[in-house]
Design a protein that fits this description.
The protein has 407 residues and is mostly helical. The chain is built from 15 helices and nine strands. α5 runs parallel beside α7, α9 runs parallel beside α11 and α11 packs antiparallel against α12.
Length: 407
C-alpha cells in the first residue's frame, strides 16, 4: 500500500475536521434568489437564455469570487457527513490510522447528523441545506432518497463492523421513510421510487439506491415488504438498460434525456453489485457485467482521466473520479480490469486534482465555452469533492490492504 495514499487520507480528514465538516457546494450559489430568478428569466426567449448562460459561465470561471460576491457561506451537508462517517468506519479497520482522530471525528459526525434530521411523516430522513431546482423548487432540508441513503450507508457500515444495534435501528427507521416515498407502479412486478415525498419522478440511480437499502436491511430484519419493494424497483431499472449496456439518467414514462454520464453510471453499477451480493439474481449479474464493460470501454482516457460522457471528455469532474475509484474497487470481482482502472484513476486524480500544498481536492478541469481553453476550477466542495474522495480512498485502501469490502 502506498504511504502517499494513507497520508493523503489522514490529512484530508484533518482538514475536514478542522473546518468542522463545513464547506461549499456546486448548488449553494444556485439557491440564491438572484440565480433562482435568473434561471426562470432565462426560459423566456433566446436572448434571456443566452444572458443566463453567460452569467452562469462566469460563475464557473470564478466560483470562489462568485460566492464571496453573493455572500454564500460554507455549511454542513448531511450527504457529505454520511460519506465521511462511512469512510471513518472503514479507516478504523486499517492498521496505520490514529484511532483517536477517527473517534473524535465520528462523535462530531453523529452530533451533526442528529441535529440536521429533516421533518418526516414517518421514519428518518435527511435533505440538502439549500433550495434546489428540479421539476419545481425544492425547499432546503426537504428529505430525499439520495441524501438519506448516503446517511443510511454510514449507519449500515457501522452496524456491519460493530454489530451496533442502535445503528441497525436507525437503518430500519430510514427504510420506513424510503418505503413511503412516492412509488410509480409501472406493472405488477415493476415500480420506481421518487426522489422526494412531494412528487413522482423516475431516476435510475436514486431508484437503485433506495432498492439496495431496502433489500439489505429488509433481509437483516426479516421485513419481506421492503425486500419485495426493492426487487420490483430493480426490475424497473433492468428493463430500461440499453442494448449496449448503458443506463440513461431517467426512465419511462419520462422522455429519455439521453444523458449517460460517468458518475451516475457508476452509482447504478455499484448498486447493482450490492444488490447481486444480497439477492444472487442472475439477471442482475448479467446486466451488471454488461453495464460494467460499457463503463470501462467508454468513460476513461488512456491516462486514467475520467470522461464526463462517452463522447465528451470535459468537464473532467472530481465527482466522476471519486465514484470511478469507489465503483471499480467495489466491482473488482466482476471484471479483471476494474481494479487496475480504479488505480489508474486514483493516480491521475492525485496528479491533476490534488492540492499538494493544502492537502485537499479541486473541483475539476473545465473547458471554457468562451474560449475553448482548458482550465482547472480550484474551488473545493465539501460534498462534491472532499467527502466523495475520502469515501473513495477508504474503500480503495481497505481493499488494497485486506482485500476486504464492507457490504
Amino acid at each position: 500500500m502506498s504511504d502517499l495514499e494513507i497520508q493523503i487520507s489522514k490529512n484530508l480528514l484533518k482538514i475536514l475536521r478542522d473546518s468542522d465538516f463545513k464547506g461549499h457546494d456546486p448548488y449553494d450559489l444556485k439557491a440564491h434568489p438572484f440565480f433562482l430568478n435568473l434561471i426562470k428569466w432565462g426560459k423566456k426567449n433566446k436572448i434571456t437564455e443566452i444572458t443566463r448562460e453567460i452569467v452562469m459561465e462566469l460563475t464557473y470561471h470564478y466560483p470562489i469570487k462568485s460566492r464571496w460576491l453573493f455572500n454564500i457561506k460554507s455549511a454542513h451537508n448531511s450527504k457529505a457527513l454520511g460519506l465521511i462517517g462511512t469512510s471513518i468506519e472503514e479507516f478504523s479497520l486499517l492498521e496505520n490510522f490514529d484511532k483517536k482522530i477517527l473517534e473524535n471525528s465520528q462523535n462530531r459526525i453523529d452530533q451533526l447528523l442528529y441535529s440536521y434530521k429533516s421533518e418526516t411523516s414517518t421514519g428518518l430522513g435527511w435533505g440538502y441545506p439549500f433550495d434546489w431546482e428540479s421539476q419545481r423548487l425544492i425547499p432546503a432540508n426537504t428529505p430525499n432518497g439520495i441524501v438519506t441513503t448516503a446517511v443510511g450507508e454510514y449507519y449500515w457500515t457501522r452496524y456491519k463492523i460493530h454489530a451496533d444495534s442502535k445503528s441497525l435501528e436507525n437503518c430500519s427507521k430510514i427504510c420506513e421513510f424510503l418505503s413511503n416515498l412516492p412509488i410509480d407502479s409501472i406493472s405488477e412486478d415493476k415500480l420506481c421510487f421518487s426522489y422526494i415525498p412531494n412528487y413522482q419522478n423516475h431516476v435510475h440511480n436514486l431508484n437503485l439506491f433506495v432498492a439496495d437499502f431496502l433489500i439489505k436491511v429488509g433481509l437483516e430484519v426479516n421485513k419481506k415488504e421492503w425486500i419485495d419493494l426493492g426487487n420490483k424497483a430493480v426490475n424497473y431499472t433492468l428493463s430500461d438498460q440499453y442494448e449496449d449496456g448503458a443506463f440513461d439518467y431517467n426512465g419511462p414514462p419520462e422522455e429519455p434525456q439521453k444523458f449517460i454520464d460517468n458518475y451516475h453510471t457508476g452509482f447504478v453499477l455499484r448498486m447493482l453489485g450490492s444488490i447481486h451480493f444480497y439477492t444472487s439474481r442472475d439477471d442482475v449479474e448479467i446486466a451488471l457485467k454488461k453495464g460494467l464493460k460499457f463503463y470501462l470501454d467508454n468513460f476513461f482516457e488512456r491516462n486514467g482521466a475520467p470522461k464526463l460522457k462517452p463522447d465528451k471528455t470535459y468537464r473532467v469532474d472530481i465527482h466522476s473520479a471519486a465514484e470511478a475509484i469507489n465503483c471499480l474497487t467495489f466491482l473488482s470481482s466482476y471484471n479483471v480490469n476494474a481494479f487496475k482502472q480504479a488505480t489508474d484513476v486514483l493516480s491521475w486524480t492525485i496528479e491533476n486534482l490534488f492540492d499538494k500544498r493544502n492537502g485537499d481536492f479541486f473541483y475539476g478541469l473545465e473547458k471554457s465555452r468562451f474560449t475553448g481553453r482548458i482550465y482547472r476550477s480550484e474551488i473545493k466542495y465539501i460534498r462534491w469533492a472532499q467527502s466523495w474522495m475520502l469515501r473513495a480512498m477508504s474503500r480503495y485502501l481497505l481493499y488494497n490492504e485486506q482485500n476486504r469490502l464492507i457490504l
